[in-house]
Amino acid sequence: RQDSDGDLSPPRGGATESEGKKVLRMSSGLTAGVMKPDEIRRQTEEAKRRHREQLDSTADELTGKGAETIYRDKSGKKISEELHKKLNDKHRLKKKRRAEKPQELEWGGGLKQKVDTEQEKDELYQLSQQPFARYDIDKDLDHELKEKRHWNDPLAAAMEEAEIVAAAAATKKKKDKKKEKKEKKGKEEKNKAEDDAKEEIALGPEAFKKPKCPHPMPPNRFNIQPGYRWDGKIRGNNYEERWFGARNVKAFYEQEAYKEHHAHM
């Protein structure tokens, strides 16, 4: 048909800034819609440049540049930098102690038994790697033969006595070392307690006081105090209030019955 239009589809292509029409932009400053990678890269750099220029032109009082750091405690009160560091060091030490891996206990034997078992396994493995027939005396076998005690050895008694003396000396040395370590630990704990007491006196009890809830506590059966983060709003089903009300009503009726009973006597 010659009188009909060749293409009845709507015009395609979005509006551009060169055509003088309004261009839709996102909050990031980029043009909305499908774009080529080069165009996305160019618009991203342009948005970053505009953001930097805006920050440079803004006063430091509004951006907070170069402002002094304000330190606060748990209750929101302003404190000094020195006090903030001390409180943070104590909190970091407590957190580190909680995160320490607990001691792993092994059942069925102690450390010596475990070492002996490992040595026995190593010896069995070494024996399994050796040939069945042993013609020469190697270093391990020579050491094993030397360690053997014979009943007719004239030096056996002297060797046993020397071993007993060495064992007694080692035991005494171990006890002295343990006692010295215990005394050193006691002195460190005593000095630490004295330092903490001096620090508490210098900083005041308010610095180490646990925060409490500022809102009045509603009555409950177990007299449980609310946490310091509670905002004072009751979000329950008022069970505690109904429980106290029922108890008071019961006590009232019991008292009235008691009065009435004694009035007719």
β-strand number: 2
Based on the structure, what is the oligomeric state of the protein chains? single chain
Number of helices, counting only DSSP H or I runs of 4 residues or more:
7
Q: Describe the main β-sheet briefly.
A: 2 strands, antiparallel
Query: Helical residue percent?
Result: 40-55%
Word description of this protein:
With 265 residues, the protein is mostly helical. It has 7 helices and 2 strands, in the order ααββααααα. It has helices at 37-57, 60-63, 81-99, 111-129, 139-147, 156-203, 239-263; strands spanning 71-72, 78-79. A two-stranded antiparallel ribbon has the order 1-2. Strand 1 (71-72) and strand 2 form a beta hairpin. The longest helix is centred in the C-terminal third of the chain and has 48 residues, at 156-203. The termini are far apart.
Overview in brief:
With 265 residues, the protein is an all-alpha fold.
Q: How are the elements arranged and paired?
A:
Layout: H1 37-57, H2 60-63, E1 71-72, E2 78-79, H3 81-99, H4 111-129, H5 139-147, H6 156-203, H7 239-263
Entry keywords:
single chain; 265 residues; mainly alpha; 55% helix
